Amino acid sequence: MKCSENAINVMAARIYKGIGRAWIVKNLSTPKPEEAIVKLLNESSKSEGTITIEDFNKKKSMLRRILSESVGAVDGVVAIGDDDFPAHRGSVKNSERPIFLFYKGDLSLLSTESNNIAVIGLLNPTQEIEAIERKLVANLVANGAVIVSGLALGCDSIAHLQALDSKGKTIAILPSPLNDIMPAKNKDLAKDIVASGGLLISEYLTAPKSKMQLSGRYQERDRLQALFSNSIVLSASYAKNDIGNDSGSRLAMGYAKDYSIPRAVIYDEKQHLNNPMFDLNRQLISEEPSIVVFSEESSATALPKILCSSAVVMAPSPVQQSMI
């Protein structure tokens, strides 16, 4: 398993109380020796007592042990400060930037040189939704795009499967450790993605301790779908309403807007006007009239716009850096 000393140091520092992503970005964007890290932790951590080199090394040993148990499921871990740590797209505050990733497969697919396009949507698409999403994904792959999605059932699975059927590459971003694929029904799909030259990534080494923590991980996964894509396409989704409907797709599209990642939706007013499965699509169109809209009729003009969309990599502003 590939794992630098810097990656272990970053993960160990993150364990301490009060040490978040923003602190890691500010202090460990370049590799530092253990002594310097421990000094910084003692100045900032909310942990009780003085942090010692011995204590820090115990945490590193624990991480190495857990990593050893993931051999086979994980090819490596890469962290901020490593030469091969991928740059994210868009403008994002430090507290939301990725700081380490566990991966299996071709990590180079996260490069900003890769034309990554996320395709996401609801869990229970109709055959009509599946058909138009498959057409879109097939066209994207034919034009050199790498398909990003979240390995969930429904539209996510369709995106990954069509990418593979089209002999393309796809990236699955998981809310779970790579040795505990979620959902379990997609374990074989995850294997196929890697076997076909694709990539699995996760920010997590261990299983969630509660349903609340798992829910938070799904939201964090949604942000990565935006941060590692040049653009993001919504296949179909319910909008949030007072009868309990909501979706991770809404969150992912919201993150994309916040980060200035170009967005697109599948929608045909003649066919989908009264279909609640397209409520979020309609909402996004009303909020952003210039959003790219893909349909059977508009495919010739919409497809090039999606393919040519490019999210700029931007350094955080001083205001963003203060938001820890």
Task: Please describe what this structure looks like.
The chain is an alpha/beta fold and 324 residues long. It folds into two domains: 2-85, no CATH class; 111-308, Rossmann fold (3-Layer(aba) Sandwich), CATH 3.40.50.450. It is built from 13 helices and ten strands. The protein has helices at residues 5-15, 21-28, 34-44, 53-68, 127-142, 155-165, 187-195, 211-227, 248-259, 269-272, 279-287, 299-308, 318-321; strands at residues 2-3, 76-79, 100-105, 116-120, 146-149, 170-174, 199-202, 231-234, 263-266, 292-294. A ten-stranded mixed β-sheet has the order 1-2-3-7-6-5-4-8-9-10, with helices on both faces. Strand 5 (146-149), helix 6 (155-165) and strand 6 form a beta-alpha-beta unit. Helix 1 (5-15) crosses helix 4 (53-68) and helix 8 crosses helix 9. The radius of gyration is 20 Å and the shape is elongated. Mean pLDDT is 93; it is low at 315-324.
